[in-house]
Structures are given as C-alpha cells and as structure tokens.
Amino acid sequence: MTVNGVPEDLADLVHRAALATPPHVGDLANVRRRARARRRRRAAATAGGLVVLVALTGGAVPLLAGGRLARPATTAPAPASPVPAPPPPTIRPAEPAQRLMIAVDWTTWRLDGGKGPEVGLRGGGEVLPDGSVRRHRTPKDFSPGAALPDGRLVGLLYTDLMPGVRRTDGPNVEGLSIKLVVLGPDDAVEISREVRIKGQSIELLGADQRYAYLARDEGIVAHELTTGRERILLRSSAAGVDLIAAGQTSVGSDRLAEQRTDQPCRTDVRRLADGKRIARLTADGICMNGLRLSPDGRLVAVPYFLSNHGGQQRVAVYETGTGKLRVDQAIGTPRRVPVPGGVQGLAWADDTSLRVAWAELPAGARRVYSVEEVLKVVTVSVQ
C-alpha cells in the first residue's frame, strides 16, 4: 500500500486493530487476519500514530628458526621456552528456560515526500543468550507458535490448495490445508500433520516436549506430537467463555492467561484443571503483543504501552495466584519515526528473570536496518 502517511487517532487505531481479530479462524479469509491484527497492534504502539506503511515485498606461513649446531662446551644452554598458559575456559551463557523469538514487520518508508531513500527495520529469528540473532529457515506460510528448549520450532502451516479458484469462503471452504509442523534444531521438517477439521476453528497456543496445545471449537486440547492423539484439557463450556476467541493466550503449568480487550489492557488468569478464573489483571495502558507465563506458571508478563507519555512501552509482571503486581518496568519510548519500533518479543530466562527484545531505528536513519544492528535486550527481574 503506497499512501502518504496520515496521522490517525491512536486510540481509534487500537480499537479497530482489536476488532479486526475475528472469533473464527477456520476459513481462508481469517487464517491470516489474526497475524495482521497483531501487526496493527505493534504498529499502534509506536509513538505518533503513523500507521500507513509501505510493505517491503519486496594463510600465514610459520617462520621456523634454524641455525648451525654449536659446540656444547662453548654454547650456553638456551633458556627454556616458557610453557604457554592454557587459554581461559570459554564460559557459555546459561541456556534460558524459554527461547526469545522476534519477528519484525518487514516495512519501509520512503522519505522526502516519496523521493528520498527508504528507511525501515526488518528481520527476525531467535535472540541467543549472547545477544546475537539466529535466522531460522522455515517453510513459506509457516506461522510459528512455540520454540522448544531442545531447539525445535512448532507452528501451523497454512496452504491454499486451490489457488486462483473462486469458491464460497467460510469454515467449510474447500481446498484449505492447516498442518501442524515441527522443525528440528537444524530447521528440517520432522513432523507435518494435517490438523484442520473442516467446519471448525483452530489456533496453536503453545507447545512443550510432548504436546502442542491447540484451541478448537470445544476448547483447549493437548495434541501429542509423536502420535497425533488429542485429549481435551479445558472445555469452553466449563470456562464460561469461548476460549478460541481470545486476542492473546499463554498456556503454562496449570495456568491459562488470556486477553480479550486491548484497551483497557485486561488479562484473565484461569486454572487449566477447571477453567475457574483466579485473577483479573488490569494494566493502565493498551495491550501489546507478547503475553507470557513464567516457566513455573507463578508469574505472567504483560507488555503494554501508554497512549500518553509519548507512547512509553512497559512490562508489568503479576502473580498468577493472587493478582499481585510485582514489577512494572519501563522498557523504552519509541522515537517518532514512521516505521514501527520498540518491544519485539519477550521470554523468561528463568522463573524470575525476563528478557525483553527492543529494536528501533536510530535517530536520523536514512536506510533499511536489519534487526541485529539495532537490537538490545533488557532484563526485567522479579525480586
């Protein structure tokens, strides 16, 4: 879309972004719409409310000392060569409990009224413990949903099997494939299994070493990775809400955190065992992408931004059992530039330390930057 940038009302933008996420994701028109809504939520979090963006489619030779052998009686013994000290051991950063994945919108903006250079931020992948970024080779139209500690990636692969063929859209549409795909540590496909049930919705909420957790029409199910067998964990009827309709969901140790409204930023925490709501958390701002339960399920991180204060982006951490606020930390305030910047992802390093990825264009930028050039990782600690 190539339109001159027009400032829009920020609150209205976020409201429309939230409404753009429909409850049903089982047809062709809707399988991508949730991702677009999440991108709009990220764009709305940038200061200034500039949201009309242009999509980017687009060897040494050793010297040997030699000499004539002298008489032993007249030649002083050569000093013993010092034994070189062994190099210090390489200390590798501890492997985090959760892998930090980021996905930056590949968008650019042409400066000087469309006549200048393109500026933008692009890239994505996995932020390693040392701060470097690893790019993963994934299939086209692969939507990642979980990064496992053993190096595997789990996601859904959407495929239109009848491209160019006009047909009636909807949950019963013909020619739509939705596969659960597991990529190995080397990014090779290890599992590819059809999981679409015609006429029903599906969404991947998360995964662990044994199961992928899917939201289906009846509720949340555990899908065994090796066999494909499924069992119901929590029915929507037991929870009293449509579990697949949440805007964001995080599944953890007997905990389910979900957000249904962006403004106010409200998070409900439920027990997976019976669906009972045990906490309602409200952050004084507008929700952003990245809701994340801690590995032990005792804490939940809620990223949000303030519509005032220049659009400052923050992370609040709550106890899931009591709803008590433990930390509310400012991460940064994005510059007023047309290309989205700010919080790009977050993950728990352990049960009390959160890694937050932040990336934005530098002041005066006049080119496209890869996320590695501008990435920094902020740590949020819960005492």
Automatic annotation (TrEMBL):
What UniProt keywords are attached to this protein's entry? Membrane, Transmembrane, Transmembrane helix
Source organism's superkingdom? Bacteria
Q: Which SUPFAM superfamilies match?
A: YVTN repeat-like/Quinoprotein amine dehydrogenase
Where is this chain compositionally biased, Pro residues type? 79-91
| Ranges annotated as spanning the membrane | 43-65
Please note every region of biased composition (Gly residues). Answer: 115-126
Region: Disordered, residue numbers: 72-93, 115-144
Q: What's the protein called, per UniProt?
A: Uncharacterized protein
Gene source species: Micromonospora sicca
